[in-house]
DNA sequence: ACAGGATGTCTAGCGTTGCTATGATGGGGT
DNA sequence: ACCCCATCATAGCAACGCTAGACATCCTGT
C-alpha cells in the first residue's frame, strides 16, 4: 500500500511539473494565445482531463508557470545585487537584471505580470518567491530609509512600464539602456 | 442618388460610433472578457455580421475604442497642463491627470495600453491623438532639453507601471499619491 | 409605373475554445 | 483468483470569433 502509492505520487508530481514546463515552453515558442488545453494535453501526451486533475483550470496552470518565473527572477535579481561591488551600483545591477529577464523571456514575464492572475501580491498570503523579488529591490536602499518600500514600488513600476511598453511596441525598444540609466540615476539621486 | 446615399452614410457613421460606445460601455461595466461579438450585437440591436461590415474584427473594435480613449486622454492632459500656474507644476498636474484617467476608466485604459493592438506607436503612421498624448508629457520639459523625449518616455513608463500594477492588485492601490509625488520630484529634479 | 439589380441584413453554421460527464481498463488488495 | 477502485480517454456541451448563403428591401433605368 505504501511503496506503490509513493511511486504513484512521485509520478504524479513529475507529471505536474511536466505540464508546467510544457506550458511554459509552448508559450515562449508561440505566445500564450497558442497555449490551449488541447495542444498542451497533446504535448504532454495525455488527454485533456488529466490537466484538470492537476490544476483547477487554465488560469491555474498559467499561475504555476508564473510562480516558477518568480523563483527564477528572484534568483537572478539576487545574483545581480550580490555581484555589485558597491551598494550604489546595486540598484543599477538589479534593474538591469530585471529588464534583461523581461526582454529575454517575454512570455514568462507576461504570465507573471500581465495576464490576469489570482496570485496575491503585497499581502499576508503572498507566495515567498514573489516577496523575494520585491525584497531585492528594497534591499537596494538604505535600511534607515523609512520610505524604501515606496522607493522599491516606484522603481519596480517604472521598470515594469518600460518593459511592457517596449515589448508591445508602444515605445521604441532600442533605447532601454538610456532609459535605465536615467531612471536609476534619478531615483538613486536621493535614495 | 446623392441625398439618399448621404443619409445612408450618415446612418452608417452613426451606427459605427454606436458600436464603439456600446463596446466601451460594456467593457467598463463588466470588463473586456464580457465583450463578445454576440453580446455587442445584441446591445446595438443588430446581428453579428453588421459588426464585421464596420470593422475587420473584434480587435479592430477594441482599437477604435482605444483611439477614442486617446482623444479624451490627450484633452485631459492638455487641460491639466494648461491649468498649472507654473511650468514646474505642469509635470505634476499632467501625471496626476494621467493616473486619474487610468483609475477612473480602467477598461478604457486597458484597451489603450494593455490589450494587444495594431495601433502604431512612435512611428510615422502614429495616429495624431496618440502622439498628442505623448507630446503633452514632452511639453512638460524645457525645450532646450535635448533629452526631453527620453524624459517623457520614462515618465510615461513609470506612470503606466504604477497604473497597471495597482489596477491588477500587484501593488497596494492606496498609495498612488505618494508614489506620484516621489516620481515627480525625482524626475523634475534635473528636468 | 414597373421590372431588374444592387445593397444591406439576418439565419444558420463552421471550427475552436475551456471544461466536464460518462464509460472502459487495468493494476492492487484481500 | 477475484473483485473493486482509481485512473484515464472518448465524446460532448456551451460559448467564442467569424462567415457563407438566403432573404428582403430599396434605388435605378426604361
Describe the protein's topology.
Two copies of one chain form a homodimer.
Chain A: H1 2-30, H2 37-43, H3 48-54, H4 58-83, H5 87-104, H6 106-113, H7 128-138, H8 148-167, H9 176-188
Helix pairs in contact in A: 1-4, 2-3, 4-5, 4-6, 4-7, 5-6, 5-8, 5-9, 7-8, 8-9
The structure holds a DNA duplex (30 and 30 nucleotides).
How would you characterize this protein structure?
The structure is a homodimer of 191-residue chains. The first copy, chain A, has 191 residues and is an all-alpha fold. Helices cover 73% and strands 0% of the residues of chain A. In chain A, helix 2 packs across helix 3, helix 5 runs antiparallel to helix 9 and helix 7 (128-138) crosses helix 8. The longest helix of chain A has 29 residues, at 2-30. Chain B binds a DNA duplex (30 and 30 nucleotides) through residues 1, 4-5, 8, 36-38, 46-53, 57-58.
Amino acid at each position: 500500500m505504501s511503496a506503490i502509492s509513493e511511486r504513484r505520487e512521485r509520478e504524479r508530481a513529475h507529471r505536474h511539473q511536466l505540464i508546467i514546463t510544457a506550458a511554459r515552453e509552448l508559450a515562449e515558442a508561440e505566445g500564450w494565445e497558442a497555449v490551449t488545453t488541447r495542444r498542451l494535453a497533446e504535448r504532454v501526451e495525455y488527454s485533456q482531463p488529466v490537466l484538470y486533475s492537476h490544476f483547477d483550470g487554465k488560469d491555474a496552470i498559467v499561475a504555476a508557470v508564473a510562480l516558477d518565473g518568480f523563483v527564477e527572477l528572484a534568483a537572478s535579481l539576487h545574483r545581480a545585487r550580490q555581484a555589485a561591488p558597491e551598494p550604489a551600483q546595486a540598484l543599477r545591477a538589479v534593474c538591469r537584471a530585471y529588464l534583461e529577464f523581461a526582454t529575454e523571456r517575454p512570455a514568462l514575464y507576461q504570465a507573471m505580470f500581465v495576464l490576469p492572475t489570482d496570485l496575491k501580491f503585497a499581502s499576508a498570503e503572498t507566495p515567498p518567491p514573489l516577496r523575494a523579488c520585491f525584497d531585492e529591490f528594497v534591499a537596494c536602499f538604505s535600511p534607515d530609509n523609512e520610505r524604501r518600500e515606496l522607493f522599491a514600488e516606484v522603481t519596480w513600476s517604472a521598470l515594469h512600464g518600460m518593459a511592457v511598453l517596449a515589448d508591445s511596441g508602444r515605445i521604441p525598444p532600442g533605447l532601454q539602456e538610456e532609459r535605465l540609466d536615467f531612471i536609476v540615476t534619478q531615483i538613486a539621486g536621493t535614495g
